[in-house]
Amino acid sequence: MAFRRKGSVMTGPASVLLDTSAWIAFFAPAGHGVLKLEVQKALNEERVFTCAVVRTELLVGARDRAAFTKLDQLLSSLPQAPIDDALWLRAAGLGFALRKKERSIPLPDLLVAEVCRSHSLELWHLDEHYEAIRRQARFATRSFLGA
Fold it and tell me: Which CATH architecture has domain 16-143?
């Protein structure tokens, strides 16, 4: 089980980070029943982490100021996996390796994948890019595509 103090990341096998795609599906009024149940369970068990990339993407997409504030409060309550200069460099190396294999991956996805890999977090998502990244750099993912 992960250590839960905000600002610290000491993870266990059950700790997860939700990609922006998973959060969007979680907040959608309809669909994605399996994901919604699993995310709610993980939130109740305090197993969900976030990072600056996901937080920023979600806040940029807020529909209005009230939604921005509510979302910011939720995300601020979660432990945040840190992103340092070394992590940025590893993400760049990962993107470079994938590009050499003719696979171009957006920078936010590279960063989120490297956050999960570096902090041993399982990445929950609805984004095919992560499965392509996982084939290059081993880390735990759970795809809700088709679920």
Answer: 3-Layer(aba) Sandwich (3.40)
